[in-house]
Amino acid sequence: MLKKENILLVDDDIDILELLQRHLKSLDYHTYKAVSVKEALYILKDTEIDLLVTDINMPEIDGLQLVKYVAEHYPDMPKLVVTGFPSVEDASNVIKHGATDYLTKPFTKAELEAAVKKALASKEAKQAFKRPQVRPVATNGYADMIGDSEAFQKVTEIIDRVKDNRATVLVRGESGTGKELVARAIHYSGKFARAPFIAVNCGAIPENLLEAELFGYTKGAFTGANENRDGFFQAAHKGTIFLDEIGNATLPVQNRLLRVLQEKEVTKIGSQKPEKLDVRVIAATNSDLDELIQKKTFREDLFYRLSVVTVDVPPLRERTSDIPLLVDKFMQKYGIEYKDRFVRIADEALEVLKRYSWPGNIRELENVVQRAVIMCDGKITLEHLPDELKYKIDFPEKGFKTLQEKEKEYIREVLLSTQGNKTKAAEILGINRKTLREKLK
């Protein structure tokens, strides 16, 4: 289970940022990432952070200024500094402004763990900077999601941490795992629930229209633009925009999206005037963004802007203990809709559902249960489940025979049809009796 502490990591070196996150994640800490001081301030604004881990040497605004800012605005927040260019002056400055430790790159995972524990211990000693405990997750449900497996609870723990702030979230998972449900849970469980939630499927909108739909346009910006029109981003002002299948966004759209995330403003197509925007961005993908980055079809800097917080939604095969709960939910939903009553399921049918690997995840399970409810008379049994879910026998591949073996096999078939009459068999085969005898040896 995740520890209760939230740690903010700030470094313009992406490799170090990833290394820090990987180490801390393995130690069960929850992390927020920022590649600049500016982004760090946006996260600090409305997120409960227990520890700041920051680099010193960064472009534009250095980490020392961030340390000083935190020392005054969040005086009880411990601060851990990491740097690749150590100096006596920097060390004395950061310690003077309350940093608990000063790590020099490269450092080991053990050194990082010790420094983090020391910093958090100093916070506990002060008994300050207290925040409400994370609300306990319901035993078997959260928002419209359901489950009680450890994998499910890890997802809901992260939702609890981000629901009341505007940190950008990247939701990753296979198709059908419920990524949009996670996005809706983040929005509707938090303090921005009354604001708009705008869902956009980047893969469903034609490439040439996506930019205009997202950012809006002015009259005359292109053929058919007969009026000024707001885009999805403007519609989501003060609320949340959910960008599904973000891996399908074109590079021009990615460029504009990066600017929106950096500057917190959007410019309509055909306009030169940017509009300030207060919106939380949640993106989702079932694509391997690392692979797309290697292929140069997805911007690496956009990826790091989107993944301030990452939620990895597990496939159903990794949370099989949740299958009975999901089946009950879907039987109740479709039993009332189609049968006007509750539907039950036979134990052996449930065992088949629990055994299946579900490549289509929760969406596939829901479809199977929906069909079974329609076909049954109050109780789902094995006969109501698709054959592909049931036990299969894997027959060995049929091996190929040599030409000689196939020839002998055919000759025996002909002899069988002639009741062993070799003269008649030779006639049928178009050979003489002597050749037939040779072939039978």
Automatic annotation (TrEMBL):
InterPro entries the record matches: AAA+_ATPase, AAA_lid_NorR, CheY-like_superfamily, Homeodomain-like_sf, HTH_Fis, P-loop_NTPase, Sig_transdc_resp-reg_receiver, Sigma_54_int
Keyword Nucleotide-binding, does the record have it?
A: yes
Transmembrane domains' residue ranges: none
Where the record annotates domain Response regulatory, the positions are: 6-120
Task: Give the 4-aspartylphosphate positions (modified residues).
Answer: D55
Q: Which residues form the Sigma-54 factor interaction domain?
A: 145-374
Report the SMART domains cross-referenced here. Answer: AAA (SM00382), REC (SM00448)
Q: Which Pfam families does this entry report, sorted A to Z?
A: AAA_lid_14, HTH_8, Response_reg, Sigma54_activat
Q: Does the keyword Transcription regulation apply?
A: yes
Q: Which UniProt keywords apply?
A: ATP-binding, DNA-binding, Nucleotide-binding, Phosphoprotein, Transcription, Transcription regulation
The signal peptide here is: none
Q: Which PANTHER family match?
A: ALGINATE BIOSYNTHESIS TRANSCRIPTIONAL REGULATORY PROTEIN ALGB, TRANSCRIPTIONAL REGULATORY PROTEIN
Instruction: State the protein's name.
Output: Sigma-54-dependent Fis family transcriptional regulator
Q: What is the organism of origin for this protein? A: [Muricauda] lutisoli
Q: What is the lineage of its organism?
A: Bacteria, Pseudomonadati, Bacteroidota, Flavobacteriia, Flavobacteriales
